[in-house]
Write a structure and sequence with these properties.
Elements (H helix, E strand, L loop, with lengths): L17 E9 L2 E4 L2 E3 L1 H14 L1 E2 L19 E8 L6 E7 L1 H27 L11
Antiparallel strand pairs: 1-2, 1-3, 1-5, 4-6, 5-6
Bound molecules: zinc ion (2 copies).
Amino acid sequence: MSLFPCGHCGQRYPGRAASFYPAIVRGTIAVREKVRLCPACTLRLTLWADSSMAHSMDGQVSLTCSWCTESRELLFLFLTAFVPSEERQDWAGAVCEQHVAQQVVPSFWGPQDAAQAIQKLENGPVVGVDSQTS
Ligand SMILES: [Zn+2]
Ligand SMILES: [Zn+2]
């Protein structure tokens, strides 16, 4: 079984964890916290990223929120995935203030850690903290 419970659903699972490095940048504040996910949550986050962000290799990051047409005061999103026996994947995107807490934070860090991540986004800068150390 995995050494760590899944960062989203809290389950232990057979096999190796996938590691995700989500980041949200709001001006000078950046929240970056690694999460380790089980296969089911890995699939869900990957599908979410495909529909919500662009593969950053494409170099086409949209400058409007992915959930509305807001184009001012955007926050920038970055996600890197290391899934066992798959290629590294990178996504990038943008979101408005209104949608970041609802749409992005729970998808990135899971419902349990969402409040904490939102607080860091308010109070940052917090860089390079690993919340899954226990
Ligand atoms: Zn999970
Ligand atoms: Zn929006």
